[in-house]
Amino acid sequence: MGSRFWPYSRQAMPKQFIDFLGTGRSLLQLTVDRLEGIVPPENIIMLTNEQYSSIVQEQLPQIKPDQILLEPVRRNTAPCNAWAAWHIKSLNPDAKIMVAPSDHLILKHEDFKASVVRAFEFLEKNENSIVTFGVKPNRPETGYGYIQEGTHVDEFFSKVKTFTEKPDKELANVFLETGEFYWNSGMFFWGVDTIINAMREYAPEISDLFDHANMFYGTPQEQEFINEHYIECPNISIDYAVMEKAPCVFVEKVDFGWSDLGTWGSVYDNSPKNRDGNVTPGTRVLAFESNNNVIAARGDKLVVVSGLNGYIVADTPDALLIVPKNDEQKIKNYVNEAKTHFGDKYL
Amino acid sequence: MGSRFWPYSRQAMPKQFIDFLGTGRSLLQLTVDRLEGIVPPENIIMLTNEQYSSIVQEQLPQIKPDQILLEPVRRNTAPCNAWAAWHIKSLNPDAKIMVAPSDHLILKHEDFKASVVRAFEFLEKNENSIVTFGVKPNRPETGYGYIQEGTHVDEFFSKVKTFTEKPDKELANVFLETGEFYWNSGMFFWGVDTIINAMREYAPEISDLFDHANMFYGTPQEQEFINEHYIECPNISIDYAVMEKAPCVFVEKVDFGWSDLGTWGSVYDNSPKNRDGNVTPGTRVLAFESNNNVIAARGDKLVVVSGLNGYIVADTPDALLIVPKNDEQKIKNYVNEAKTHFGDKYL
Predict the structure, then answer these.
(1) pTM of the model
(2) Alpha-carbon distance A188 to B219, whole Å?
């Protein structure tokens, strides 16, 4: 729902549905694509807000409607992970679950697959464990949460010592220097019973609700129940509700070219550059004396730029944004300004 | 047909058909609008290339099809003025003609009307005279032709001494300093017989052709004759063919806020500025730390710019141009480059 990619992302078409890299596949589609060979399509469960139901079905025709769980309201990541767990338990009480955000970028697919396989193997060997991917940081990023590793289990896995919210610049530098801190990627692995029991212990307000619906999972009453009661869930993240409190949480240290692709700047950083240093994802661009821009337009629109350096140019049929890359944090203010002047028209 | 306003102007939609000022009226419509009260609509004859016939009829529903003379090929301004004269003679052998280019800007309509009325009155009083509007120059413009005035007739009119092509900067400065030189606006006034006789004397290759068709004017055979023979006309301007040679040419010195609106820069110079110095003709713009730009988009497209100074931003559904105002002379090169890469698609 963020406005950081406006006008490319909109309320009705948020980031995960957009093809930022010009590959012809949205971030959501890429997320499903890279699970090929690891998770059979019929074992994928999508959780999304009900307003995005048709976009998901359109972008992922291989996912059947009964694999899509529709949240009637937003309640952050703890309630939706709870729903997923209880729902999956009704399909397979021994299931192991991977939680994969749909709006992240992963560049090295083979390394990613190896990491995923390793995490599932770890769950098999270590009963009741929870695994979270910790991405090796390469810069003192203040936009991510961090995981501090404790006791090493082996080359790849360590016990988690602490979860830390987004740090300030100084602290992020300390994190980077110690070598003990990893970016929290928001990707988790757990067994159905492990997460359900953890919820019962650390988030009973949520588990009570989902336990009450045990007779409904897998029936038409499931969605009815959710539509009526999901709103009663506390609005709380899975990190805060469970991960920070559960005892058997392990971090798998991974390095597969991950980005949460949170800004145009990260699209720029993570995309191949033209000879002139411009990033033009899937866009017809003629650039003259113009360098280090990210220029994105839809379809076969031609963008001609001259004497433009270090800008974001993002064009859609009804809105065009031109802003220096260094000012990208102001985009949300501009979107607010647009709302002030024109209401919801361009949101 | 120029590419200087690309992507706003196109081969299929040249400058005169475009609403550059965001008034809701194209330059062509504004040209007809400002003749209101001087020339009855039924006395207006349009000359245009046949490919623009439908655009003219769409933009000017008050002009009947038989008032539109369609050139099958481009032959510059002498042949089309000849056709107009012979055609009008068949309607009214005593007609006085005003020639008004359709793609110029005039800001002060009342002053313009007074000047037009004065020119027609001059024709009535001075048989066989030709009047041309000379615009008082306010800068050493190298993009216009100049008219040097000779003997003064009265406060407003002088005999023309010379017509001069576009000067270099040095000469343009001299022109400005002497106070004897006026911009050639391309607007002319003459009686039907005056121009026809001048053609017969100075451009017999053209007059012979049109004299041969005397039995056709006002009949369905007129357009047939033109379609077959217009191509035989020499490709020559009215200035070169007649004005520079005819003896009784007078300049009326005018000052009504004229521009041939030849570049985005002249659109900028001639348009009202926002508080921040931006010109945004009919366009929804939110400008942050952005000054002295001309920003044009179609319909209700929203353009958000930040940290942009002195640029042209011209957006259309299939092409977007961003170029510093100071580099506007390069636009035609960019259009050529687009042609090299993509053929006629964006022309």
Answers:
(1) 0.85
(2) 84
